[in-house]
Amino acid sequence: MGVPTGRRTVAVQRVDEPLARPTWPTHQVPMQLHLDFSVGGRAELERHKDRAVSLGAAVLLDRSHDQDEALYVLADPAGHPFCLLTTA
Fold first, then answer.
1. I want to staple 36 with a disulfide (CB 3.0 to 4.6 A). Which of 60, 65, 80, 83 is the partner?
2. What is the pLDDT of residues 19-31, one digit of tens each?
């Protein structure tokens, strides 16, 4: 979603009861959210992955050595997967 300043924003909806932890890559409990974050190169990919892990994320998939699209799939502390990727 864009705002007049040109910055990107994300809106989230609060729920009273916790949702079941997603079971990605299986679909037993589907994802409720998925975000992809593109970074500016392999060094940035590693820096942002390390930062996410230091904040409680877990690495679910490591494709950081893929020559065409290096990426990590991580999960936030509640289990929601998100990707850090670069095409550089």
1. 83
2. 888 898 899 998 8
